[in-house]
Amino acid sequence: MRAVLSFLACFVLPFSAMAADCGADLKGAQKVESARYVLAYRTQPGKIAVGKSFVMDLAICPKGGNPAADGVKVDAQMPEHGHGMNYKAATKPAGNGRFHADGMMFHMPGRWEVSFDVKGGGKTDKLTHSLVLE
Fold this sequence. Notes:
Low-confidence stretches: 3-17
Order of helices and strands: HEEEEEEEEE
Largest sheet: 5 strands, antiparallel
Mean pLDDT: 89
Shape: globular
Radius of gyration: 16 Å
Distance between the termini: 55 Å
CATH architecture: Sandwich
CATH superfamily: Macroglobulin (MG2) domain
Number of strands: 9
Strand content: over 45%
Number of domains: 1
Strand order of the largest sheet: 1-2-3-7-6
């Protein structure tokens, strides 16, 4: 039993703490979780305006010893209208589980579903977050 507790203290708990602190340095970040990852993101500018370009800074942290993310694809759709963005976002790695998505633009007000396809360990996790743009 002592060996199991030592293992948890040395290996599992630090990964859990890392996931809980994911994106702590991204002021005002939103968080989304899957079974394997915590994703924190913030937009620049902080307030998204209709028809104006914005970027996203992302931190992706593995949970429970899962592999680090190899990449992420960011997209957005308006479910009530049956369409997505008019532009395709370009996502680039920024090191240490960080990514930068450029070319984002919401061309109309309403509810947007932002989707993050996180790739890691040969699998893809789909995470989504709703935003309402006025």
